[in-house]
Write a structure and sequence with these properties.
Elements: E1 2-5, H1 9-19, E2 25-28, E3 44-48, E4 54-59, H2 64-71
Parallel strand pairs: 1-2
Antiparallel strand pairs: 3-4
Amino acid sequence: MVIIPQESVSSVAIFRKRGGYSIPIIADPDGTLVDPLGIETVPTHIFVDRKGIIQDVRAGVFNKTELLDTIVK
């Protein structure tokens, strides 16, 4: 899931449509979702296990190999 802070629902919908993304993308125009997490860098990746527990938080852009290495531990 992708959360885009400080953007309107309509601009996120346009972004999703233009990019042809199939994953859920959520607008967070007021920062309600990201502010409590203290996220200051975009992108920030939050890795959550099946129980909903945050296992890792990493900022920055990953290539496919780096992302898979983080997910498959």
